[in-house]
Design a protein that fits this description.
Blueprint lengths: L21 H20 L6 H12 L3 E2 H8 L3 H13 L3 E5 L7 E5 L1 H21 L5 H14 L5
Antiparallel strand pairs: 1-3, 2-3
Helix pairs in contact: 1-5, 2-5
Pfam families: MarR (PF01047)
GO molecular function, one term: DNA-binding transcription factor activity
GO biological process, one term: response to stress
């Protein structure tokens, strides 16, 4: 899906500054991807952070509330609001810790476990649609580069 211009290096002197800024390009792409995901989750009355929390709890049942806040990179008060909504929807529950009664372990409910698979399929379809301009090799390379920027590669 590459055009000849895709491989041509940008000449900073002849290119508008924003078109040479990696951060700006990442943000614009992230906004497009995010909006696709928002739209795909709307019928479930869920936002991307709530979806992400459900996926994390599926992978790590019993995760402590403070740990989930760190994983989502949000402040504890924001997490409380997020969890309140997931509990109201019957998707997750807080279980008071046995050793530290102030701490809560988080679990998906049966309804949450049943829904998370469907949500992941919906999110994957959204991801594919939003990244459709990329062929498989480009998508793989983009993911590799993003992991590198995020410090996940050696």
């Amino acid at each position: 899906m590459s055009s000849p211009d895709d491989a041509t290096p940008l000449d900073p002197a002849a290119t508008p500054w924003l078109d040479t800024a990696v951060g700006y390009a990442l943000r614009r792409a992230q906004m497009k991807m995010f909006q696709h995901l928002v739209d795909s989750l709307a019928e479930y009355d869920l936002r991307p952070a709530q979806f992400t929390a459900l996926v994390i709890l599926e992978q790590e049942p019993g995760l402590m509330q403070a740990d989930l806040a760190r994983r989502l990179a949000i402040e504890p008060p924001q997490l409380v609001l997020l969890l309140n909504k997931l509990e109201r929807q019957g998707l997750a529950e807080r279980v008071r810790g046995t050793q530290d009664r102030r701490a809560y372990a988080l679990h998906l409910t049966e309804q949450g476990r049943a829904l998370v698979g469907e949500l992941k399929e919906r999110a994957a379809a959204s991801d594919r649609a939003a990244s459709a301009p990329l062929d498989d090799a480009e998508r793989t390379e983009l993911l590799r580069l993003l992991r590198k920027l995020n410090g996940e590669l050696g």
